[in-house]
Amino acid sequence: MHPIIKPQKNFVMHKEVISIDGVDKDISKWKNNNEFEISLPYPIQNVSYIKIKDLTLPNLLHNISSNKQNSKMSIQYANPVFGTALNKSQHEGDITKTITVSDGYYSPVNLATVLQNQLNRAVYNDLEVQPFKVKYNPVTNKMLVGVTEGEFKLLFTQEQSYQGKCSGKNKFNNYIDWGLGCIMGFDKQDYTSTSYDITSQDPYTQLKTGITLDTEDTAWLVPTMEQSGSNSKVAYVESINNVDTAKYDTLYIELDKHNYINEIQPYSDNTSGSFNNNLVFKNNSAFAKVSLIKNNIITASMVAGQFFNKLAYHSGEITSNSHNYNPPIKTLNKLKFKFRHHDGLMAEFNKSSPSLTLEIGSLLEEYPSHIKVRHPY
To answer: Domain total for the chain?
Structure first.
């Protein structure tokens, strides 16, 4: 061998496949399934790459919850008009109420139903009337809030109080994603209902005895018939923006010490100013990113009438699911995972566990073998 030319070593790529589940963690150290650390069965040497081969997540993660600070709203209701003193026997008065939507995953239709029930529950306890109707228009993607008698105001400028926040930041100060009203399609302002007298509307509306949508032939908002039969007025407000129940449609997976995806801190409102500039970049903030909205999510989750509460992803459905290392990592002993949304809020898995399969490539030195095979004859 020439004394100047250095001999080159040959290596072979060895693949380690490791299955990891949230229940593999030490429960005394990691109470929640959205952040945990696991120890590898044995140290892996000369790690050349780490890749997520597949991933399984709980289906329908909470999009409305107290942790996300978007489960409350306040209303002011007056029957028959604002300024009326509370009189339960006459079913009239001026009251202000705050309702709370239970933590969970809501479609626009389900959200409309829950809002209607909660608003009527709050008002009935004081006035013994159930005037509220909440309707989702799937064609315009707007939310309508109405009453069959009296008037009301949506108080979206009123800041709500939440206990046990996931993030130290007050989300009400955001220009978007500031609360339940934002999901419903409203701006951060108060809305006063517009009153309509059905008897003075066009003949078709009078025929239907109430307000109808273009996509339906039955009125969704009909005046409450009093004993005297004198009430012919309804009032409602329509959201000016689209309903958006999918604000938390993306999940980021952090792998401690191995993150390489860069992000921009959301909710910036002064990115070009010389003072108080709040444009913030987050370098090496995540290892992978997945969409929580898959095509036909409900249909695909139904087999023979059974609902499956898991979302399964293969490697092609995971954004930036692998990373190469040059030079290789000398030794890999532990892996720490964190599942969060873009704004830093942790994923709400509750008792469900994420599951993933990692492929770890390690370089093994290939030693030359000089073998002579002697044939006996």
So the answer is: 2
